Amino acid sequence: MTVRVLIVGGGDVALRAARALAPRVQFWVVVRDPAKSAAWRALGARVQVADLDCWRSLARIGAAVDQVWVSAPPAGDARGDPRTRHLQAALRRSTARSKPRGPARRYHLASRPRVVYLSTSGVYGDRKGAWVRESDPVAPQTARAARRVAAERLWRDWAKRGGWAVRLRVPGIYAAERLPVERLRRGDPAICAESDSVSNHIHADDLARFLWIAGWRGKNGRVYHASDDQPLPMGAWFDAVADAVGLPRPPRLPREAVLARVGPMMASFLAESRRLRNDRLKRELRLRLRYPTVFAWLTKAIWKERGESCSTAS
Asked: How far is it, in rounded angstroms, from Cα 81 to Cα 152?
């Protein structure tokens, strides 16, 4: 039986997952920007251009699917999360149309698609560097994080009312093309070590694997931290990237001076400090990280680059 996955928000992480699974999985993808369609169609995916802010555009959302990956963010100028409400309504209509009749009904996976929602670790707010578990209460300190909390609650309620959903709280995502290189080139300062914030990271390839695995092994209604094993002070992260790409380490300034010099988005990251526990990810999802620390990937990336340089030179 062909497994079918509906992707809502066809970003980089979902595309990485699809490339690994495309030979054995049929994908339906909902994108807002038509320019993203080509990469998905090249994988054999069926693409629907739709706007989550307009519920009518979701009328033809994919029929019977086994998993739904939701990476599209809530609207930036709305209270709560009307986008999730529109999507849930469309999924209910689609599921009702696709339910088989008779004895086969209870064996059909698509009668209750398994939703994986990508949220953010920002829902916890600032914890002063303390360790955080999935069962700890949320305390968003930005409008962006508050909208994510609203979306999470809608998916939690979805699970309680007969649906199936898990939520992945995601920290900073990195990959070769997702490093703070421009920040380092500008010479933007980092916070002094004694007052620095602690951050958490996950490689985009590991997160892509989580999508698929969480949809099968996750427990309905659960929250999982999609984070690696080693929280780092932000300054240590910038230093590690600078060393890897051959740029000067950023200068260090007092906390208040740095927060005053960066934009609001970066300021919100630098102002919040927490350490995410990922025990549940390993225990329940039985997932082994390819890159348990950022240094594991940076070391591999450096050696790969050196190897390619030697091959070119020879």
From this structure: 9
Q: How many CA atoms lie within 13 A of 44 on its CB side?
A: 11
Q: Which two tokens stand for residue 233?
A: 């002070």
pLDDT value for 99: 59
- The residues near 226 (Cβ < 8 Å, ≥ 6 apart) are 118, 168, 169, 170, 171, 202, 206, 207, 210, 278, 281
Q: Is residue 266 part of a domain?
A: no
What is the rounded end-to-end Cα distance, in angstroms, of the chain? 49
**pLDDT tens sequence across 263-302:** 877 888 888 999 999 999 999 999 999 999 999 999 887 6
What pLDDT is stored for residue 292 in this prediction?
96
Whether 210 is covered by a domain: the verdict is: yes
Average pLDDT over residues 46-73: 87
Q: What is the CATH number of the domain that holds 137?
A: 3.40.50.720
To 5 degrees, how large is the angle CA 213–CA 218–CA 220? 145
The answer to the question of residue 188 being in a domain is no
User: What backbone phi and psi angles, to 5 degrees, belong to 197?
Assistant: -90, 150
Q: Whole domain around residue 70: which residue ranges?
A: 3-171+202-226+277-291
Per-residue pLDDT band for 83 (boundaries 50, 70, 90) equals very high
pLDDT, tens digit, 9 for 90 and up, residues 203-228: 999 999 999 999 999 999 999 999 99
Structure tokens given for 12: 């980089």
Residue 130 in any domain: the answer is yes
Total count of domains within the chain = 1
